[in-house]
Amino acid sequence: MQAYLNGQYLDKSSAMISVDDRGFVFGDGIYEVYRAVDGELFEGARHYQRLLEGVDALRIERPREAGEGQLLAIASRLLRENGHDTGHATVYVEITRGAAPRAHVFPAADTAPTVFVTTYPFKDAAAVRAEGARAITQPDVRWLRCNIKTVQLLPNVLAKQAAAEAGAFEAILIRDDGTVTEGTHSNLFAVLDGEVRTHPATNLILPGITRAVILEIAAELGLTVREVAITEGDLGGCDELFLTGTTTDVMPVTSLDGRLVGTGQPGPIATQLYEALSSRMESLRTVAR
Amino acid sequence: MQAYLNGQYLDKSSAMISVDDRGFVFGDGIYEVYRAVDGELFEGARHYQRLLEGVDALRIERPREAGEGQLLAIASRLLRENGHDTGHATVYVEITRGAAPRAHVFPAADTAPTVFVTTYPFKDAAAVRAEGARAITQPDVRWLRCNIKTVQLLPNVLAKQAAAEAGAFEAILIRDDGTVTEGTHSNLFAVLDGEVRTHPATNLILPGITRAVILEIAAELGLTVREVAITEGDLGGCDELFLTGTTTDVMPVTSLDGRLVGTGQPGPIATQLYEALSSRMESLRTVAR
């Protein structure tokens, strides 16, 4: 598999970074995951905007590769060379503050950021979606800047692992005060009292691109949507729960901590939104051809 | 500078890890910093214990090098080869969950953890200590498992950078509810109402080895010590504030957010504790000879 690292295209198995890389030593970096359809990036401009916002929020010097054209060219070449330019795939981009002798303070100004890009094949969890996914709840112990897409992902790793060990697709995170925030790699929506609700885009959640698209689609479909947090107490009374994300699309949750959600079947709103999202992606495919 | 990486001794500039390393991609690893005096590790057994606890807390398979004898042998050799076996130095150890295709869930069981060890020269901040350090306060936005010494250090990086830009030695972190926790790379002690206070060793702070040693020394010296959090409101009324840490030793804070602490001079208790700590380290040196 080909990758791009700091100006070079090379086999990923040869793509090596310094042990002094601040990504490795401090988790001092950001990342982005794009969805590609037939080599075209879905909502590429929004993902790019979030990537830049992350770089700027961490005050990492914008690297040469952070120009949108440059990044697109890298992504396109990797998708092609990796045979990921037909059908669905993902593009992973990570930018760290670079390699420097270990010290918490930012390194010397001439320290070049590390830029790593690769692509992955994408396999849709269609079978899970057809039945609806199982989820568990986990305490949300993450830091308070979840709105920045950093590689500070250990709490997500541990919660997702707990889900996997429980035979679940995802862990839904709940803050100490009972606020339900999101999944470990997905945003959460609930259908409750006739409304579609999702946590507002504060510091407690990642402002998902798919979340934003789904909010748009829901409005187009005439659904009542409110960006308001649901609480742990609300979970039992939801008609539907569903997850959204770049690799999750729309995923109905039909069982939570072993209890059925709503009817225990994928709900009509999740299904409708998934279909509309898929259409948007497919239209990208048509345009590309 | 020599380093140890996954079974090999090599020049640190040649020590490279995979872009798939989970330390780089998820911050999925722990670290430890030892203080060495004349090639001997100060409180080595406690640092080793904490390292093991971190590995176990993250459920990383204990690597071969995680045997205490093995790790000591690696540290000793690096200290010697790097010329850090006379006087003071530090040993840095990092263990991550290894390199594997990117997925939040733990990788296949045969994925070897990454083990990286190197040494650094140590320069005591004696001039700062003589005058007392300046500190600033910063919001504590870290995750809720600060008791594990992981590489989830981005919030620490950002707060320490804010301190440096304010001309301060350290940032003191305060939770939303006003609880004062610790520094970005140090524990915090206060002298207040005739008592020496420090935050209890909960999930909100790192259980510092120097913190534990200082608690012992304070008790030996007959000081009244209480492990209880101070609040933001207490900060103005403290007779002394001081930081402790493996590379910080005991550092009096004489100015906080631009306001004098106590008399604005290093206080008698911080000075007494620093001297006692130094004696302990010096006794290690005598034993080694």
Keywords:
homodimer, 289 residues, ten-stranded mixed beta sheet, six-stranded antiparallel beta sheet
Written overview of the protein:
- The structure is a homodimer of 289-residue chains.
- With 289 residues, chain A is an alpha+beta fold.
- Chain A has seven helices and 17 strands.
- In chain A, the strands form two sheets. In chain A, strands 8, 9, 10, 11, 12, 13, 14, 15, 16 and 17 form a ten-stranded mixed sheet that branches.
- In chain A, strand 9 (170-174) and strand 10 form a beta hairpin.
- Chain A starts with a strand and ends with a helix.
- The interface between A and B is large, with 52 and 52 residues.
- Strand 3 (16-18) of chain A pairs antiparallel with strand 3 of chain B, so a sheet runs across the interface.
